[in-house]
Amino acid sequence: MPRLLTAFKPTGHLHLGNLIGAVRPIAARRQDSDTTVFIADLHAMTVQHDPTTLRALTMECAGLLLASGVDPSCFYAQSHLPEHTELHYLLECVTHYGEAHRMIQFKEKGGTGSRISLLTYPVLMAADILLHDTDQVPVGEDQLQHLELTRTVAQRFNSLYGTTFTVPVGVAPLVGARIMDLGDPNRKMGKTGATDHGSIQLLDPPDVIRRKVMRAVTDTLGVVRFAPEEQPGVANLLTILAACTSGDPRELAGTFTGYGELKAAVADAVVATVAPIQERYAALDPSDVRQALLGGAKRARDTAYPTVSRARAAIGLLD
Ligand code: TYM
């Protein structure tokens, strides 16, 4: 069975972009593959953070992932598995400064006063992925650049020290690889920096979701077409609708005569998508979530420890 892995950074509340871009794609593969999902709490510390908020967001993220149907058997918090940081250091030793510096994460958030770990963020991500002999990494479009660096680092390590790592591929969904902010359809829906009504959080109540969708920025053309360049707002709404209903955005475009009708359908579809997740989330006991995380970290060590041992031996460290 192929090995799939993905992760979520608890720097804010999980949103619809996370759900469509990565949560649902990996949850959908739990029958036909070995899936690993973790909460990237170490990555969350690469920007300024508040310790209490980090703990709360890590628990919320874990609960929402379980409620969304990810397989709990290999599911944990990154910081509970020290092999992530150990492999990170070994990989840093084969990564070039320019490669890390070119990554979008550092370009967007780096600058005077930023943390060194923001620069090495993509190397930790490479360690995350290579640790589990991952074949495929379901992610949104914004993470594909990090997957390319992961491949480069894995190939370099393999050619310098002998085949040690599986070289993975990033897989973005055909529909919804980049869900845009509802208030500014030229930027990605995100956990931080969203416009006021731009991001739909998975825990938003139905009336809030409806209000956000009804206020979504469109255009003055007044025709429902799937034309992302000319009509990014309308295209984004069609993409969200298609992702929530397993439809095709182009075909769906022909079924609406106006923006109000389209928005009402999108609001209904998003509410119907998140309602069961919210119900399951509300029924979770936080101590069960903690147990799931701890048990998952123990099981994850079964693949992580041998990989790190292999890498240590290959690079020339003593047993
Ligand atoms: P994060 O937490 O920013 O995002 C988690 C996942 O959601 C996807 N995503 C989106 N997809 C579609 N439209 C959007 N607007 C949107 N916003 C986010 C992201 O592409 C991602 O797949 N660096 C990662 C976390 C990470 C990771 C890893 C991922 C750490 N280690 C190893 C995969 C493998 C991040 O910041 O994700």
UniProtKB/TrEMBL annotation:
Record-level GO cellular component terms: cytosol
InterPro entries: aa-tRNA-synth_I_CS (IPR001412), aa-tRNA-synth_Ic (IPR002305), Rossmann-like_a/b/a_fold (IPR014729), Trp-tRNA-ligase (IPR002306), Trp-tRNA_synthetase (IPR050203)
Pfam families, per the entry: tRNA-synt_1b (PF00579)
EC number: 6.1.1.2
Gene3D superfamilies: HUPs (3.40.50.620), Tyrosyl-Transfer RNA Synthetase (1.10.240.10)
Top-level lineage group: Bacteria
GO BP annotations, alphabetical order: tryptophanyl-tRNA aminoacylation
SUPFAM superfamilies xref list: Nucleotidylyl transferase
MF annotations from Gene Ontology: ATP binding; tryptophan-tRNA ligase activity
Keywords for this protein: Aminoacyl-tRNA synthetase, ATP-binding, Ligase, Nucleotide-binding, Protein biosynthesis
Protein family according to the UniProt entry: Belongs to the class-I aminoacyl-tRNA synthetase family.
The protein's name in its UniProt record: Tryptophan--tRNA ligase
Originating organism: Longispora fulva
